[in-house]
Each structure stands twice: as C-alpha cells, then as structure tokens.
C-alpha cells in the first residue's frame, strides 16, 4: 500500500520554493494516500547546532503545514526528535552506506564549502538520516523539490544494499515483501522509494539570480518570497525581481537561456496549477510590466490566506504542540514496529 513521507527543516522562514516544490504537493497527495509529514529538527542541527529559536521554528513549520491544508487528524504531523527510532535507524544506515556515497552528494559539497574538514560529521551523514526518516515507516513515495533528488537516489541505494546484505535473514524471518527492482522481482524488507518530483515548480530560483535556487539561507531577503510576507512585500519583491528586457515568448523553448523569465513563468504556473505552456499562451508577447503585476496579484491571492492562517495558529502554541505530540505518538508506534524487525534481521539483542 502506498505511504507518503516527507520532511522540512526548521531552519528559517519558509519560502515560495518550499511551498510550491514540497508543501503544496504534500496537500495534493493527502486526498488519496496515507501521509506522514515531519518537521526534521534533528536535520537542522547538521548545519548549526545552537539554534536560537528551534522550538519556535519547529512550531512555525508545523503551522505552515496546517495552514496549507494538511489534516493532522487523518495524517501524521510531528517533529523528528520525538521519535528516536529515526536516529537509531540512521546509525544502522551509517554502517550500510559507504563514505564515498556521502562524499559525492552535491548538497554536502555546497554546504560544507571549501573547509570540508571542518564540516560537521552530521552534515556528511545527513542523507543517512533522511533515508532513515523515510524507511523507518517503509514509505513508498516522497514528494520533494528537485534539489533532493540525489538524496532520494541514495535512499534507494541504502534500501537495496540492506535488502541484499540481509536477504537470507529477511527470507528466514519471513519479514520481506515482494517488490520489483528494475525488471527483477525480489523479496526485500525496505521498499525502493519513488521520488515525487516534477511539475513547473520543482526548482524555484532566487528572484535576484536565476542561476541560484531560492533558499532560506540566502542573505538577501529580496531573493525569496517568505510564507509570512504581507501583500505589499510580496508585490514589492516581484516588482524588483530580476528580469531581462525582452517580452515573454509564446513557447516554452523561447525561455531557454532566460533563467529569470523561466523562473517567474514557473512560479506563475505553480501558483495557478497550470503548465508553463498554458501561462505562455496567455502572456506570450507581453512585457514584464504586464506580467509582473499579474504574477504579484496571483501570489498575493494564493499566499496571503496561508500567511493569515499561520499567524492565527502561531498564536496558539499549545494547540501546535498537541498536534506534534499526538503525531509523534502515532508515528512512534509504526517506527518501533519497523525497528523491532530491523533489530531481529541484524541480530541485535533486544526485547
Ligand atoms: N528553491 C526550491 N524550489 C523547489 N523546492 C525547494 N525546496 C527547497 N528549496 C526549493 C524543497 O523544500 C523542501 C524542504 O526543504 P528543506 O528546508 O528541508 O531543505 P532545503 O532544501 O535545505 O531548504 P532551503 O530553503 O534551500 O534551505 P537552505 O537555505 O538551508 O538550503 C524540500 O523538499 C526541498 O526540496
């Protein structure tokens, strides 16, 4: 049975990239699937151990999930630190994965920068914890932005290596399930997870530089639209967004070599649930002086209600904490069920 899992780090204000690339997909998937959505607070320690407002930020991401329409009664919403089985499985995956696999991760290279020797060991092992987040629930589908694609491939590699290394034990204990790996049908314990990436907003770029992704850690606030921005700020940022002097093309091919224009068209498409083609058939031939105000109106129309609901929820931290506590309790039951079997497969003694 399909099970959806995804997570967001409490590392700063959420932005339109997080919303269109991930959270909007979380909402769309909840009608037809069982879903588990997690605020991955342990992940946020990899870049910065001491956070001033970690609890507050964790509540704020939770509020964004709920304000966007995720139903915490039907699905599970919680923060990672409440379910210690994530860390336990991550340790085991640290022993499954190879250092070379981690060293190849572009996110590690980007975030560690030149001084790699000084990056935290947690930053290197980040994808192992991410694999554990997903596989401790034996989730089958993971909606994420394009930037997480490589980590999801690594999750598949870890699942496959675990299934291979322990194939005899898995068969002996009868805990495997039949699954297709490429052309082959194998009996494995962990599913080979499918990424859910795509659509016109899988990679939203900075509003100031079309070659950089929109990111929480960009020092320029003008580079991103925060989920908490008010209508005036959204309009101002779109008005100031970098563009080129040409009119919009009528066809998607005409966006090639025009990253800023492509990005704004992608944002419009993501917000309006349209394809880029459809946006261009409406705005092709128009100047940015026409397109930008239309985009600003659309962004305000779609984002202002989310921001308003987030503010309302943040005024009641006890409610948010109760959602996280309840979600954590439900998640822990599933995660412990998996870990009991994992300990048995490996041969670790426990109850
Ligand atoms: N620019 C983006 N376009 C589309 N999707 C994006 N995501 C992030 N940026 C974009 C997706 O949002 C989800 C949550 O991200 P995260 O907070 O867990 O990790 P991140 O990728 O590190 O987020 P940021 O904002 O880019 O933070 P920094 O500045 O720390 O790098 C993920 O599904 C991600 O793909």
Automatic annotation (TrEMBL):
Q: Using the record for this protein, list the coiled-coil segments as residue ranges, or answer none.
A: none
Tell me which SUPFAM superfamilies the record gives.
Nucleotidylyl transferase
A Pfam family: tRNA-synt_1b
Q: Where does ATP bind?
A: 9-11, 17-18, 145-147, 204, 213-217
- Keywords associated with the record: Aminoacyl-tRNA synthetase, ATP-binding, Cytoplasm, Ligase, Nucleotide-binding, Protein biosynthesis
Positions of short motif 'HIGH' region: 10-18
Q: What is this protein called?
A: Tryptophan--tRNA ligase
